[in-house]
Amino acid sequence: MPKASEIKKHAAIDYNGRVMIVRDIERSVPQGRAGGSLYRMRMYDVVNGGKVDETFKAEEMLQLADLTRRPAMLSYIDGEEYVFMDEEDYTPYHIHKDSIAEQVLFINEETKGLLIVVVEGTPVSLDLPSSVELVIEETAPSIKGASASARTKPATLTTGLVVQVPEHISSGDKIKINTAESKFMSRADS
User: Which of 13, 24, 120, 156 has its CA 20 to 30 A from that of 99?
Assistant: First the structure.
């Protein structure tokens, strides 16, 4: 059983008999309090989507939920539903756009290393790889002679995600992005 301070975003915990996915964590250290940090977690019920905000002390023990992670790839989008296909047994997983709104900005049909989080047979969330490769759809023209470490400019990717890139990068380039920080890492290997 992990402490509240060890819980990460997108973890599934068993809370009051319900399986909850942690979507956001805010750490705070109250002034003049000998006890340490507080962790405010925004959690969503995997069954009905209900939102719960709860604050835990750093040392409080939490129960991880029973879940499995299945390797999958994006198959197609059907209106508000994203359909993923299990890479091992070809099971289709339907996940509503709202429950994975942040993650879909990082994925397309070519994204490798996706994991579908399945709780009690129901797909509830998506685990992203640490980095993804996406193509820049639109950015200001590259500046000749700009150094790789100089100023940055915003670039809109084909998925709609906007990241800051060095000035020498141009539209149509394929780049590598850190999914945890939404930051440009490098040009992708072609």
Answer: 156
131-185 folds as OB fold (Dihydrolipoamide Acetyltransferase, E2P) (2.40.50)
Q: Which residue has the tokens 């009690």?
A: 120
Please say whether the beta carbons of 62 and 8 come within 8 A.
no
99-110 pLDDT, tens per residue? 788 888 999 888
CA 124 to chain centre: 13
Q: What is the pLDDT of residue 156?
A: 93
pTM (2 decimals)?
0.69
65-125: which CATH number, 2.60.40.150, 2.40.50.140, 3.40.1550.10, 3.40.50.720? 2.40.50.140
User: In angstroms, rounded to a whole number, what is the distance separating the alpha carbons of residues 8 and 40?
Assistant: 12
The CATH number that domain 2-62 falls under is 2.30.30.30
Q: Where in the chain is the domain with CATH 2.40.50.140?
A: 65-125, 131-185
